[in-house]
Amino acid sequence: MLEIAVNTQSAVVRKAFLTVAGRTRDFVVETRREAEVWVDEIMAVLNQQLQVYHDNAEEELTALQSIVQTMGNIDTRIQQLRQNLQAAEEQAARLDRHAAPLLRLLREPFSTAR
Fold first, then answer.
1. What does the DSSP assignment read for 22-88?
2. Where, if anywhere, are coiled coils annotated (predicted)?
3. Whole-model pTM?
4. Per-residue model confidence as pLDDT tens digits over 21-54
């Protein structure tokens, strides 16, 4: 009778242990699955944010490159305008030199004697 009681108690403890072990295993498996789903969702959000950041950075880089190119064009245009101004000033100086004798003649009194 004692042997039956000990064997029965042992079987009950074993069944309880197996039940707890099974539930623990199921809990760990379910928790792992939920964690993997959560990580996948977080990674999707992070990837989306990184893509937006990348796209914005690309747009800003393109805008900066355009500004640099425009600045180069402006510098070239300023050089051209300076050269044009210098040429115009030189031409004005030549015209002043050539016009000086004519202006002196025009300022002289007009003589009516022939």
1. HHHHHHHHHHHHHHHHHHHHHHHHHHHHHHHHHHHHHHHHHHHHHHHHHHHHHHHHHHHHHHHHHHH
2. 71-98
3. 0.51
4. 999 999 999 999 999 999 999 999 999 999 999 9
